[in-house]
Amino acid sequence: MIPSPPETRASLIVRLRDAADVAAWDEFVATYGPLVYRLALRQGLQAADADDVVQQVFACRNEDE
């Protein structure tokens, strides 16, 4: 069973539009990083590879700018 994603406050989503809002991004990664990590482990990745996936997921967001 896939864990339910945590609820994200609408105010945090609005703040994420500002790439310079480091506190918002820290909170977002702290909230969703563990979920991405668990999903990667469930796909059979080793812990180090799951860590890499988490970094890649959030790095991709920065490349979109």
Beta-strand content bin: under 5%
Identify low-pLDDT runs.
none
Number of helices: 3
Termini separation comes to 34 Å
Largest sheet: none
Which class of secondary structure composition applies to the elements? mainly alpha
Q: What series of H and E elements makes up the topology?
A: HHH
Radius of gyration, taken over Cα atoms and rounded to an integer in Å = 13 Å
Compute the average pLDDT.
Answer: 86
Percent range of helical residues: 55-70%
Count of beta strands? 0
Overall spatial form? flat
Task: Write the SSE topology.
Elements (H helix, E strand, L loop, with lengths): L9 H7 L5 H21 L4 H17 L2
Helix pairs in contact: 1-2, 2-3
Task: Summarize the model shown.
This protein has 65 residues and is mostly helical. The protein has helices at 10-16, 22-42, 47-63.
Distinctive features:
3 helices; flat; mainly alpha
Describe this structure in words.
The radius of gyration is 13 Å and the shape is flat. The protein contains 3 helices and no strands. 69% of the residues lie in helices and 0% in strands. The chain has helices at 10-16, 22-42, 47-63. It has a domain at 22-63. It is mostly helical and 65 residues long.
